[in-house]
Design goal:
about 40% helix; Rossmann fold; 2 domains
Length: about 300
Amino acid sequence: MNQTIPYDLFISYSRRDNEQGRITQLVERIKSDFAPFAKRELVPFFDQQEIAGMQDWRQRILQGLRESRLLLACLSPAYLKSEYCEWEFVEFLLKYEIGHLHGFNGVAPICFVEVAGWDSKDFEQQCATWIAELRKCQNFDLRPWHDQGEDALREAAVQERMGKLNRQIVQTITRGERAEKSLGNVDAHNPHFIGRTANLRMLRENFVMPGHLGVVTAVNGVGGLGKTALAIEYAHAFADEYGSGRWQARCAGKDDLLEDCSGGLRPSHDANAEKTATVTDRRYKAGAGSPCSGAL
């Protein structure tokens, strides 16, 4: 069973930008706009406590980052100078590194206060690496909100941007909820799995070949290279696309693949489900050093 993520949004911001309560007001507005779309309340992680003991703060924030689907970054000069905001962004980005392959990185930057030179082509060459990464994300220009609050919505352009932001939030959360509902017996996601994006991209390109249905892919190599780990990571990264579930056939030490598949897998018979992913860890009784394969 997949782990339920308790928070929809992690609000990453500089406390200096909320001295007049503008970010608090924005969060409340996003919550009210979300409810009619999703038929439920939005649950944000919005830490407003003062930073006291560093260890206590880091533990509290780290838990929020790990348990949130989307990071809402409120950009401003103060945000870009804050080492705390940098740490939040980098930690969250590592969590969604594989999501880049899915056209998704879990970050929605909001331009909250004017940042000099932000739109300049030379800005990226002069800024820190994490800021350059942040600039690659689609951002939403809500700068009028910082000065005007709710009154900024009188402008048609601001209304349009808020609408786009709300749609991305709903889309991201819906995708996460679909992934949580995807059935299966696949091993838990490894939070220390980093990199290997080229291998995952190759798997992805094979599965989405036009005109192909039910593609079987084998990852070959000697034992210990992490073939099964790669297959499992793929199953988690694209869980929302497999309504019938993601199933792991544990065939270690068996002579017949069907022996395990016939008794260990219980696929869904949901008429609305379209695809099933099966992870097969196939290690036959062929002796040490023999090639193994993780099949999808």
